[in-house]
Amino acid sequence: MNNVKFTGETELEHGFGPAIRKRVNEYFHDNGISTKGNFTLVVQTIVMLSLYLVPFVLLLIFPMNWWEGVIMAMLMGIGIAGIGMCVMHDAAHGSFSHKDWVNTMFGGTLYLLGGNVFNWKMQHNVFHHAYTNIDGMDEDIASRGPLRLSENAPLKKIHKYQYIHAFFFYGLLTVSKLVKDFTQLAEYNLGGITRKYHVNPTLEYTKMVIHKLVYLTLIIGLPIYFSPFKWWQVVAGFFIMHWVAGFILSTVFQMAHVVEGAEEPLPDAKGVIHHDWAVHELRTTSNFAPRNKLLNWYVGGLNFQIEHHLFPNISHVHYRKIAPIVEQTAKEFGIEYNLKPTFRKALRSHVIRLKELGITPPPENRFAQAI
């Protein structure tokens, strides 16, 4: 599957990608608008960084009860998720600013959360965006342990009730990445991916170790030294913080790709997906709650996931405006625009899909692409 190719079967499919790019480009040109971030993104950045850093500073300088400490940890978790969705995500895609150094700086906010920028770019920008919902290529739907997120993955007894226990394990996303980054980078090194992208494997591994040590020293070491909390209370707060962040991030992501109507195709024996790439993105992605302005603001436009997949280099602050263009164009070309109108309905759809994945075995011919 390392050489998956997308081939549209009809002229109509071939025409969708160029048509939607032309219309969206005309929107920005005709309105004299930059495709990158604006003042809204600046405000989001300040708010999300403050949600993370202000509670941390308060923990260090003011004596607190245990329940106040828990509130601070939860606020930091909300801030972590906000930074990931609103700030780092745009910057890592190069859509925060026209200036590379600005994108690099704000993309580096991932280090404040204990993550690794190179790993994230490979997993998300390269594999997830290029091969959305393709099992074995898109690591974001990889099925591990108690979770089965792909219909093409083996079915186990433990998956039967994943629609209940999945949300607990979603909360382990960011804290598990602290460790998983090491094995993931090792796999990228062995697979030649780091060198393919002109990154020195040894240097990248060294940088990652240093970043994580500095992060853990600051986020755990400083509260142990300056706050009245015992070491195990600090560690518990650290876990709560990451669980809240992981729960938010995972849930938002899954409501865009593991819901009713979001397909999980596999290439045929020749490594071909029998749809144009742009069409594939619509068939594997879903939007939700487009009219919920507060949700859209907090999740960094990731409820407009279709627009994000088609135009990852456009800042999320513009998705609400270009969404009607994308939806209308899809309708004209006879392509389904998967939309869940509210957050509640999207969450319900995700739970239904988890139930289906928990009891439905893989197709008998998993590698036959359904046209």
Write the layout of secondary structure elements.
Layout: E1 5-6, H1 11-31, H2 39-61, H3 66-92, H4 100-107, H5 117-130, H6 162-170, H7 173-190, H8 193-196, H9 201-226, H10 231-257, E2 272-273, H11 277-283, E3 287-288, H12 293-298, H13 305-310, H14 319-332, E4 339-340, H15 343-359
Parallel strand pairs: 1-2, 3-4
Description:
This protein is globular. The longest helix is centred in the N-terminal third of the chain and has 27 residues, at 66-92. It has one domain (5-359). The chain is built from 15 helices and four strands. Helix 6 (162-170) crosses helix 15 and helix 10 (231-257) packs across helix 15. The two termini are 18 Å apart. The chain has 371 residues and is mostly helical. Helix content is 61%, strand content 2%. Mean pLDDT is 95; it is low at 367-371.
Task: Give the structure's gist in a few sentences.
The chain has 371 residues and is mainly α. The chain has helices at 11-31, 39-61, 66-92, 100-107, 117-130, 162-170, 173-190, 193-196, 201-226, 231-257, 277-283, 293-298, 305-310, 319-332, 343-359; strands at 5-6, 272-273, 287-288, 339-340.
